[in-house]
Write a structure and sequence with these properties.
- The protein has helices at about 25-35, 120-135, 150-155, 240-255, 270-275, 355-370, 390-395; strands spanning about 50-60, 60-65, 75, 80-90, 105-110, 140-145, 160-165, 185-190, 200-205, 220-225, 225-230, 260-265, 305-310, 315-325, 335-340, 345-350, 380-385.
- By secondary structure, it is α+β, with helices and mostly antiparallel strands.
- It folds into 3 domains: about 1-20 and about 295-398, 3-Layer(aba) Sandwich (Severin); about 40-145, 3-Layer(aba) Sandwich (Severin); about 160-170 and about 180-275, Severin (3-Layer(aba) Sandwich).
- A 10-stranded mixed sheet has the order 2-1-4-5-6-17-16-15-13-14. A 5-stranded mixed sheet has the order 9-8-10-11-12, covered by helices on one side. It has a two-stranded parallel ribbon with strand order 3-7.
- A hairpin with a 6-residue loop joins strand 13 (about 305-310) and strand 14 (about 315-325).
- Helix 1 (about 25-35) crosses helix 2.
Length: about 400
């Protein structure tokens, strides 16, 4: 793909006679900060002043605090904003500007479920920018996709689960009581093929409760209400079994029910298949295979670095360097750069970048991602010079 294709047509960047020229001006920042300072979600006396983990769900264009006892549970029909604030002695950045003093560093994720609405996704993106403004523009911004979980996001939630339904979905989960009818649920536990090894690489997704959702390489948990079955595919991994045990333990803390663990090779495992509508299916003779609900995007063998610049009077987007020798010295603080590493596209905003460059980076990266072969599985992260964090430095050096 030509780096200029669809991205440098003059008419798309003819911003001089429009109000886009005000973006990132002092007036623009004041207006945005004023808006952010009136958002109840941010103004709780803790956000921006103390370290911690905060989660909000988008509901009817509003930012609604997510209950702490549900942290780590995300519905595929929703969009969320997650803020992780850490107190650090010295921020790991490409160029230190704080003299090594203690300070808060922030990561903001707007998490988009695979079935979220455009309105919810747009609100999450807009409010993420607003939250960054509330934090004085120092946060690292991440677009996190359900289909492509990053190691950084997964590490925030030791008990990360993706559930069916959502706030505006017909499958919306509701609080149940003793008189409520039980709905069978099926959870799939599997290893992300592109994630680093370890606990955070094991994912938990609720899937349609049918035998067609089974896969012999993974572990499944069928919750019948009065009993829980654990179905272990014949080639599942030990880490998946351990993760399933953790999930079942969490489930039985709230209700005391019988749990039965069955291997696919065990003839009795047919009881699970029967419950899932496969009464005419033989577990011993059938090859269970179901696509995993994640992207197949992988890290690139050769990275690509693009420059977004208006140094010649017109905004242009061009390939600056390609290969695995891209380093800190290839960045220029007067421009905006896009680093394509494969699973993640990084946007680096130089402290001296122009208003036009700062105004257009989001549009450019969205167009670039849309042109990739696996656009649905490409996340992007935006960092600013002096507040890059370790992950960006690692992406440059890896």
């Amino acid at each position: 793909m030509s780096p200029h294709e669809g991205l440098v047509h003059l008419e798309e960047y003819d911003w001089h006679d429009s109000n886009v020229a005000l973006i990132n001006s002092d007036i623009d920042h004041k207006v945005k900060y004023q808006s952010a300072s009136t958002e109840p979600a941010w103004n709780n006396g803790v956000v921006g002043s103390k370290p911690g983990l905060f989660v909000w769900r988008i509901e009817d264009f509003k930012v609604v605090p997510w209950p702490e006892d549900q942290y780590g549970s995300f519905y595929e029909g929703d969009s969320y904003i997650v803020l992780k604030s850490d107190q650090v002695q010295k921020a790991a950045s490409v160029q230190e500007t704080d003299g090594g003093k203690d300070k808060l560093v922030h990561d903001i994720f707007f998490w988009l479920g695979s079935h979220t609405s455009q309105d919810e996704a747009g609100t999450a993106a807009y409010k993420t920018v607003e939250l960054d403004e509330f934090l004085h523009g120092t946060a690292i911004q991440h677009r996190e996709l359900q289909s492509s979980p990053s190691d950084t996001f997964s590490a925030l939630f030791p008990r990360l689960k993706i559930l069916r339904g959502g706030v505006r979905s017909g499958f919306t989960h509701v609080e149940t009581n003793e008189n409520s009818p039980h709905t069978d649920t099926l959870m799939r536990i599997f290893k992300h093929p592109n994630a680093s090894a370890g606990r955070d690489s094991i994912l938990v997704h609720e899937v349609e409760p049918t035998w067609r959702s089974l896969d012999e390489e993974d572990v499944f948990i069928l919750d019948k209400g009065d009993k829980i079955f654990v179905w272990q595919g014949k080639t599942c991994a030990p880490m998946e079994k351990l993760k399933a045990a953790q999930v079942v333990n969490d489930m039985t803390l709230a209700k005391h029910v019988e749990v039965e663990v069955l291997s696919q090779a065990d003839p009795r495992s047919k009881v699970v298949v029967d419950y899932l509508g496969g009464s005419d299916i033989s577990p011993l003779e059938t090859r269970f295979k179901a696509p995993r609900p994640i992207s197949s995007a992988t890290e690139r063998e050769a990275k690509k670095l693009f420059r977004l610049s208006d140094c010649e009077g017109e905004l242009s987007f061009s390939l600056a360097k390609e290969g695995n020798e891209i380093g800190i010295n290839d960045l220029d603080g007067n421009d905006v750069f896009l680093l394509d590493a494969g699973r993640t596209v990084w946007v680096w905003e130089g402290s001296g970048a122009s208003r036009a460059e700062k105004a257009m980076w989001l549009k450019v990266v969205q167009q670039y991602v849309a042109q990739q072969g696996d656009a649905a599985g490409v996340s992007f992260t935006k960092v600013s010079q002096g507040n890059e964090g370790r992950a960006f430095v690692t992406a440059l050096q890896a």
